[in-house]
């Protein structure tokens, strides 16, 4: 069974506690804080932190000091779990220009290529609709921009650098669907 866990506006303490176990491994992180990947609280946040750490810090070399930011406690975090196994995560938050920004989208390496990224994006777009937001935006790493294009996103910027990685801004209009 696939479960989508959503955590809106987590406390600063929960985020900090989650970050402390992020490097313990995806399947161990929730247990380190006495939770589970699907508890909707600290165990889920710890699992999210571990997936992001594995993908962004370990695989892509992003500085751990910039992986976590001030938006952690104001964003809604999404965790996809299949048969008890954490698969991927995303973070969304409304922007000042009436869009929903999709961020920190990550699927664990062993689960890639099986459609989980599409399911994460569907969940982000579902959240936008729930909030009556008609547009999703994201900063896509250039090397995966084609993935987002297949989801209907269009590039709306010149390339730029974020965290030492080339990115482009992409947008998806949701109205009229």
TrEMBL record:
| Molecular function via GO | acyltransferase activity
Q: Domain N-acetyltransferase, which positions? A: 35-175
Q: Return the InterPro entries for the record.
A: Acyl_CoA_acyltransferase, Bact_Acetyltransf, GNAT_dom
Q: Which residues form a coiled coil?
A: none
Keywords, alphabetical: Acyltransferase, Transferase
Designated name of the protein: GNAT family N-acetyltransferase
Name the species this protein comes from.
Answer: Halohasta litorea
């Amino acid at each position: 069974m696939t479960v989508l866990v959503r955590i809106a506006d987590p406390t600063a303490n929960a985020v900090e506690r989650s970050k402390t176990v992020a490097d313990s491994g995806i399947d161990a992180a929730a247990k380190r804080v006495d939770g589970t990947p699907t508890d909707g609280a600290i165990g889920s946040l710890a699992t999210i932190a571990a997936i992001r750490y594995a993908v962004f810090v370990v695989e892509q070399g992003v500085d751990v000091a910039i992986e976590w930011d001030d938006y952690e406690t104001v964003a809604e975090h999404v965790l996809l779990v299949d048969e008890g196994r954490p698969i991927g995560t995303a973070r969304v938050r409304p922007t000042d220009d009436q869009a929903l920004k999709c961020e920190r989208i990550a699927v664990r390496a062993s689960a890639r290529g099986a459609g989980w990224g599409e399911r994460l994006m569907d969940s982000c777009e579902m959240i936008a609709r729930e909030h009556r937001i008609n547009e999703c935006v994201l900063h896509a790493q250039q090397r995966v921009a084609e993935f987002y294009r297949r989801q209907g996103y269009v590039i709306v910027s010149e390339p730029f650098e974020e965290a030492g990685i080339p990115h482009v801004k992409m947008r998806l209009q949701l109205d009229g669907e």
